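User: structure tokens for this one?
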Amino acid sequence: MDWTWYLFRFDGRINRAKLWLAMVVLLGLMMSVGLAIVAIYSLFGGPAAFHFGAKDLFKLVDPDAYRSLTWADLPRLLIKLFGTSLLMWVYFATSIKRLHDRDKSGWWMVPFFAVPGLYNQFADRLPDSYTDLPLAIAALVLCLWASSKCIA
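Assistant:
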């Protein structure tokens, strides 16, 4: 198997078994990046607990996320930024190939991933009212629909 094509390119098709293999590879990469972050914490100091997820990517478009950074946070932030970008690239490449196998366009990743992710990042800034309930329901429906489309 050509691993460069499999994990990093967006053309072609993969079946369900190869999608699950890619998720196992992603889990291994996540653990490696997590160990690197823990090593940086032990070298430079900092809190022992950390979170790791796609929400870090959406913080890139959020100016409030940069206001509380210090110089001690820079090494951890760089490792997290590089690791998260790599993980998301592999996730998008394999998911788009799976969508191609289902005769769907790769552009379906925009509503499946970006819309719910952006909503989750900025949900705390929306006013507390029932007017944002349709947005929350749409984000939930897109996440559930994406799960059924990519795996089925």
